[in-house]
């Protein structure tokens, strides 16, 4: 017979106890103590997403960690710092426009920017195949292969 205790399974046999202990040994324990209103909001958001509180919080943290690798805001603050994907930066106006567009589409900023870049790459390839420089709109004097 198994009993629930503090979100974990309390085993009734020695074999079950060993299995639970082994599974728990692979996990870290991080305690959060948000203000009551925030805790209520987190629980409600997790329920609305049909996730456990742990799943919801871990997903949010993982998304934040991916964004923090090199956020657009960081690139604006220090344009000389290397970024995870290269050396370019976005202007504050471009970042703001991307944030607004991402919000409209319901995407996180990194996903929106990734999609926008992938779309532009395809457009540039099409332009090159047509013999048009994608950035200037000028026709190439010589036929280009669009590699």
Kindly state the mean pLDDT as a whole number? 79
What's the SSE pattern? EEHHHHHH
Number of discrete helical segments: 6
What is the overall silhouette?
Answer: elongated
Give the class from helix and strand content and strand pairing: mainly alpha
| Largest sheet features | 2 strands, antiparallel
Strand order of the largest sheet: 1-2
Low-confidence stretches: 1-7
Q: What's the total number of strands?
A: 2
If you compute it from the alpha carbons, what radius of gyration comes out, rounded to the nearest whole angstrom?
24 Å
Work out the oligomeric state of the chains in this entry.
single chain
Terminal CA distance: 65 Å
Our estimate of the beta-strand percent is: under 5%
**Helix proportion range:** 55-70%
Outline the structure in words.
- With 147 residues, the protein is mostly helical.
- It contains six helices and two strands.
- It has a two-stranded antiparallel sheet.
- β1 and β2 (8-10) form a beta hairpin.
- The protein is elongated.
Give me a quick take on this structure.
This protein has 147 residues and is mostly helical. It contains 6 helices and 2 strands; from the N terminus they run ββαααααα.
Give keywords.
single chain, about 150 residues, mainly alpha, two-stranded antiparallel ribbon, 6 helices, 2 strands, about 5% strand, disordered N terminus
How are the secondary structure elements laid out?
Layout: E1 3-5, E2 8-10, H1 14-25, H2 36-48, H3 53-68, H4 72-77, H5 92-105, H6 109-129
Helix pairs in contact: 2-3, 5-6
């Amino acid at each position: 017979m198994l009993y629930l205790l503090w979100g974990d399974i309390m085993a009734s046999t020695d074999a079950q106890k060993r299995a639970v202990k082994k599974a728990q040994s692979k996990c870290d324990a991080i305690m959060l103590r948000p203000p009551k209103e925030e805790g209520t909001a987190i629980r409600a958001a997790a329920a609305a997403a049909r996730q456990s509180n742990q799943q919801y919080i871990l997903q949010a943290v993982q998304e934040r960690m991916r964004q923090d690798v090199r956020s657009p805001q960081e690139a604006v603050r220090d344009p000389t710092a290397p970024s995870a994907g290269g050396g370019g930066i976005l202007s504050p106006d471009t970042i703001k426009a991307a944030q607004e567009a991402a919000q409209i589409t319901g995407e996180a900023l990194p996903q929106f920017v990734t999609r926008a870049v992938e779309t532009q790459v395809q457009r540039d390839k099409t332009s090159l195949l047509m013999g048009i420089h994608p950035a200037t709109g000028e026709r190439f004097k010589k036929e280009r292969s669009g590699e």
